[in-house]
Amino acid sequence: MTLRVLLADDQALLRGAFRMLLDTAEDITVVGEAADGGEAVRLTRELHPDVVVMDIRMPGVDGLTATSEIAADPELRGSRILILTTYETDEYVAQALRAGAGGFVGKGIGAEELAEAVRTIAAGDTLLSPAATRSLVARFLATPDDAPRHHPERLAVLTPREREMVALVATGLSNQEIAERMFLSPFTVRAHVQRAMTKLEARDRAQLVVIAYRTGLVRAAPGDDRPS
Asked: With the CA atoms of 197, 172, 111 and 36 taken in that order, what torsion angle do they form, in degrees rounded to the nearest 10?
């Protein structure tokens, strides 16, 4: 299966470089390029790429706004978003997750790393290390902001095991780490997580993490930056 990618960056030279990097992968093809967020949204609706590689700072409609528009469109659920930017700050990462992005990497990434990032996002997984997830989610997603909060009763659709899996995902553990902790196979863990995502209508693991915090399933420990 060939993964279809849309590149969104206001610098043509960088778009060309990213296209060259991705073209080295046999299972990835770049189907379009956008110079700003508005064009990225339009081309996503037109081309339905598997992954949109999105810059944050672009003229007109920025990458975060474009990400929110794409993530909010039910017809574009199959298009996942990878934020690729030079601005690797905690706040930008948190804003990207809130907007609906599935991952966040810096522009200094290598060819194979970029290709693997695209594959990871296309598979519905979050491209943040466990340490980054723990720190960023606890610091930003668990604090009050103007984003709407989900009601705790939304979790009633989950089985006790699925709730447990969602809570572990929210602490930044990978499927392999959860499997080792729960004495289960990674396949079983992935199945539980996928079912939870389907029931909660989460686009990917990043959104699942957001839901876990906003429903109060997981909270930041008092005086600490780690979830509990």
From this structure: 60
pTM of the model: 0.66
Return the closest-CA partner of residue 50 out of 82, 8, 80, 19: 80
Side-chain-side CA neighbours of residue 206 (13 Å): 30
Instruction: Give the pLDDT score at 4.
Output: 96
| Residue 56, phi then psi, degrees to nearest 5 | -90, -55
pLDDT digits (tens, 9 = 90+) for 55-106: 988 988 999 999 999 999 999 989 999 988 776 555 677 777 778 888 888 7
Print burial letters for 158-170: b (CB count within 10 Å at least 16), e (below 16): beeebbbbbbbbb
Measured CA to CA, the distance from residue 152 to residue 135 in angstroms comes to: 23
Contact (CB, 8 A) for 108 and 80: no
Residue from 97, 63, 75 nearest 205 by CA: 97
What is the rounded distance in angstroms from the CA atom of residue 66 to the CA atom of residue 58? 10
CA–CA distances in Å: residue 4 to residues 160, 164, 166: 37, 34, 29
State how beta strands 51-54 and 3-8 pair.
Answer: parallel
How much is the pLDDT for 150?
59
The separation between CA 202 and the C-alpha centre of its own chain, rounded to angstroms, equals 11
Higher per-residue confidence, 157 vs 170: 157
Q: What residues contact residue 199 under an 8 Å CB cut-off, 6+ apart?
A: 157, 158, 162
Phi, psi of 5 (to 5 degrees): -120, 140
